[in-house]
Amino acid sequence: MNILAFESSCDETAAAVVRDGRQVLSDAILSQADMHAIYGGVVPEIASRKHVEAIAALADKALADAGLTRPDIDAVAVTYGPGLIGALLVAVNFAKSAALALGKPLIPVHHLRGHIAANYLAFPELEPPFLALCISGGNSMIVDVAGYTDMTILGATRDDAAGECFDKIARVLGLPYPGGKPMEELARGGDPAKYPLPRAKVAGNDLDMSFSGLKTAAVNLVHNAAQKGEELDRSGLAASVAAAISDELVPRAMEAARRTGRTTLVAAGGVAANKTIRTDLERACRENGIKLYLPPLSLCGDNGAMIGSQAYYEYLAGHLGDASLNAYANLEI
Fold first, then answer.
1. Which residue of 138, 196, 201, 268 is 20 to 30 Å from 122, comparing CA positions?
2. Cβ 217 vs Cβ 175: under 8 Å
3. From residue 51, how far is each of 27, 54, 94, 300 by CA, in Å?
């Protein structure tokens, strides 16, 4: 089954063709990161307009790269939430039109389900059940994946996401957007114990997370040093931030595995590319006898292939859309 899939939830326009949920035939992505870098973050109106400009050409490129023509497509899939509402609407409406024109089924896909499914593309042997640690610029959560379309949130951030924390601290340090990679590069050689940053505990559910206090503490360190004319150990601060974020994520993932009895953990989302988090996850899983799947860096960020992968399983479950499909800024997994 050849699925033409679209993704436009933030600042990447993507189109891909995926066969039977596991084989990537093409994956065309156009990033707007350089365009938004001058603003220090994504400008939703600009993102939406650029998606409109790019999506038709990317659809043609995805087909051409796959060596297919339009009649070869069996279904059309699209991210319908969560994300920036204006950005989401571009791909949703394009996908609805494409499905109608081709006379093919339309498959709505949750963005985070797509990130989890990226692991199916990298690891053909992976099957549910397992736990997923979903960490990105907009979301941070631990998900129990009982089946391909049967998922339950065990813990999530109560405020900021881990990726947002990296981005905002990077901005006050004068690093380019997006901040994840520049923060990782700055942290190399830095002392992760240089600055005692907070690790939050959330009343009511100890698997929930909070990153707003960490973000505020780091930003205040930068501002206070500047006001006092003191030299800031930038490398040490970046390393300390990465360690603090990892300390919120990794122990909770291990505790979730203990409670559920799951013996497999997958990481998903853009922040899963962070070296500190990947290293800490590998060590913790090794110590706790848990099989760990870390997606390759190319599948950590937003892409169309992950949407095409999850779409196959949504299709098998009968989860189809029609012309009334809408986009949602917030959407339960």
1. 138
2. no
3. 16, 5, 10, 20
pLDDT tens digits in sequence order for the chain, 333 residues long: 999 999 999 999 999 999 999 999 999 999 887 788 777 778 889 999 999 999 999 999 999 999 999 999 999 999 999 999 999 999 999 999 999 999 999 999 999 999 999 999 999 999 999 999 999 988 999 999 999 999 999 999 999 999 999 999 999 999 998 889 999 999 998 999 999 999 998 888 999 999 999 999 999 999 999 999 999 999 999 999 999 999 999 999 999 999 999 999 999 999 999 999 999 999 999 999 999 999 999 999 999 999 999 999 999 999 999 999 999 999 999
Contact 332, 134 (CB under 8 A): no
Residue type, 267: A
Instruction: Residue count of the chain, please give it.
Output: 333
* 329 CA to centre of own chain: 15
Q: What are phi and psi of 192, to 5 degrees?
A: -70, -10
Alpha-carbon gap, residue 126 to 82, rounded angstroms: 25
Entry pTM: 0.94
Phi, psi (degrees; rounded to nearest 5) at 157 = -70, 145
Q: Say if residues 73 and 17 touch (Cβ distance below 8 Å).
A: yes
In this structure, are residues 162 and 135 in contact, taking their beta carbons and an 8 Å threshold? yes
Identify the helix (H) or strand (E) that includes residue 27: strand 23-31
